[in-house]
Amino acid sequence: SSHFGSICAAAISLFRVPRPVARGLATMPLPPAWSDVFSQAERLSGTHLRSLMQDQARNDSMFVKCGDTVLDYCREKVDQQAMEKLFALAQATDVEGKKKKMYEGVKINETEGRPVLHVALRAARDASICVDGKNVVPEVWSVLDDMKAFSEKVRKGEWVGHTGKKLTDVVCIGIGGSYLGVEFVFEALKTDPEAAVAAQGRRLRFLANVDPIDVKRALEGLNAETTLVLVVSKTFTTAETMLNAKTVKEWLIKELGSPDCVAKHVAACSTALDKTAAFGIDSNNVFGFWDWVGGRFSCWSAVGVMPLSLQYGFDTVMKFHDGGRAMDQHFLTAPPKENLPLIMGLLSVWNVSVLKYEGCAVLPYCQALTRFVPHIQQLDMESNGKRVTMAGEEVPVGTGAIYFGEPGTNGQHSFYQLMHQGRTIPAEFIGFSASQNPIELPGEPVSNHDELMSNFFAQPDALALGKTAEELKADGVPDNLVSHKTFTGDRPSLSLLLPICNAYNLGQLLALYEHRTAVQGWVWDINSFDQWGVQLGKMLATQVRGYMCDARKGNADDSGFLKPTAKLMQKYMQK
Fold first, then answer.
1. 194-220 tens-digit pLDDT
2. Which runs of E-coded beta strand occur in 445-513?
């Protein structure tokens, strides 16, 4: 308890440290490449996007492609000269060298002494990516082959439950990186025609939150006889996941009448074979992954491949991998001015560190991407929410943005008001040329998808151009309403246009955002691949858990807690 108090005191002192953005540059000299970039922001500060976008040569230079995926960033507050300085910043911070080290299996996650090799998870079977002199790709494909075999046995009814019934429902238990990316892909493929056919008669549920309400929701309407449980935990020790796993295990045993059912109804994605065996799981149904796979990059591993293959079939998941691999090759080989992840990463650095915008709105104009933004929140904020460099010194500029978003057009009726007339928040619009579910009603001027995409094209222009008082007066707006209807514009955004929301393009999109995240970290010289910031709260929760255990027995001591915390816990413990 006393240790808890000292941790709290340390945490409070940490929160008194000003943000790097607040410190800014006045108190800390910057390397020349950074100074050059800041000088570009000063040069452009008085130039409105209305003026910048009148330069068609500039606009054309900011329309770039990767296959059929298009990035249009002409509505960002940059011109060619500013971009040259950003590319020079990437060169000065050795983004290219760091990227090559990642692809070569060098241990670039220095604080944990690990390589960063999510690219190996989607590498071709004949590729070679070495860690400590050993090619890891054959091992990756060995696990992929095992998952293909198991998922096909389950889907065909060759692997059945304790009572002999086919396993048609899957509950995937995991949290954070073991959940968000997988759920994003699952939701995105629900309405893909090919994937939907493969998923007929099957259900996939997720259980992430330790809140017992989540257990009720995950199991509601399921029959234990037809349910397969997949526990996702590398070490098989994650507190929330293991409590949920034990809870669902008890449900299985209660419903099926014997502990023997566990071997037929539970599989795992884990490396802790001793713990999975103790849990009662057949060792043949444990699918491993590696410590060079960060949680938020892991949906390409068994973490995602297993549940998604059970739902949509292994071949569909491999198309997702194919898309990721295509973006990997683009990122590795495309020249800077054509390199989508590099450009998007540099623009994020520009907006966050130089223009000092602290938010980023990710706005997919596709309802299938309903869980994309929560995954990007973790991907970027857990990766780049850091305040010190690789050498442990404070970063001299602001790092990391606050990510939020909602599929269009829902977001337009929620927070776009603030984006248009309140704070300036850089935005990233994502759209698709074709719909998963095309509808065209007789008598309507456009199809449903065209109606959606009309907003996709209109909103970036509205943010960039705005509407002046003069224009409003010319439109006959009453004088007393002119100021209320004025839009200042000059609000930056970029647009991504992909062909259609299918497995391949989803792979491209996610890999693009993964590499965009890494580029930012390399420019800032932070470690985007650790997450020490999640540990303090866990430590404090362990102390609270011990107190609660004692308090329920009537012999707890709360003297080591902050007094407001003790008071609130006492209120909670009252019956």
1. 999 999 999 999 999 999 999 999 999
2. 493-498
